[in-house]
Each structure stands twice: as C-alpha cells, then as structure tokens.
Amino acid sequence: MTTQAFLSGAGTRPAEAPVKKKAEARAAKSAEVSAAKPAAASAPKAAPAAKPVPASAAGAPDIKALADKVKERRREKSWTQGDVAKQGGPAAGTVSQIERCLIEEPTAETLTKLDAGLEWPANTAEAILRGNLVGA
Q: How far apart are CA 89 and CA 97, in angstroms?
C-alpha cells in the first residue's frame, strides 16, 4: 500500500467494519432493554404498606404522649435536658431520645429517673406511657 493511499483513508475501511458491528450490537441491545422496560412498568404494583396504628390503640406504649409531657414539663420549669439529668433524671442524651420518640419502650429505671428529674410523683412517667394518666 502506498503512503498516499494510506493517508487518503483507503487502508482504514476494513478496520471500520468491526466498529460498526459493535455499534449496531449496542443499539440492538439498547432496543431490547427499552422494549423490556414498558413490560416491567405495566406489571402490577405491590399493595401499599399498612398505615401504622397509633400506639395507644394497639396497646403499645404511647411514647409520643410521654415525649410531649417531658418536653412540656421541661419548658414549664425552663430546664434544659442537662438540667433534668442534674436533678436525678436520665442522661441528657436519653432525655433527648425520649423527646424525639427514638426510644420505643424506656426501661423501668429510666422512667423512675424521669419522675425524679422532672419532679413528678412516683410512677407518673409509667402512667403517661401506658395511657393511664392524661394530665401530668
């Protein structure tokens, strides 16, 4: 092959054929995937998850009520979570978790400490958690 033929591209034609085949193969595969997507999209959808039942209705501890009462009592006393801990309550981090409903069922010790730290009568936190005490 001469240099002029090579520079004009005459020598590159056969090498282009495999590139075209690869591009065509990718296009065909892409078309197959695209064709498969509508079938998957039209498949029946799963039923939505059941809505959670309020804790008090299910007989479970009402952590939301406890959280609200703890916050209310702290604000009433103008105390921080650390102040509750200093008063003999649970650690400030535990108070924070209770107020954010991150502890699903506080231990008996934690509830006893809440009563002490918030200056509530004995078993008040337990009664709120079980839904047996509306006003604290």
A: 13
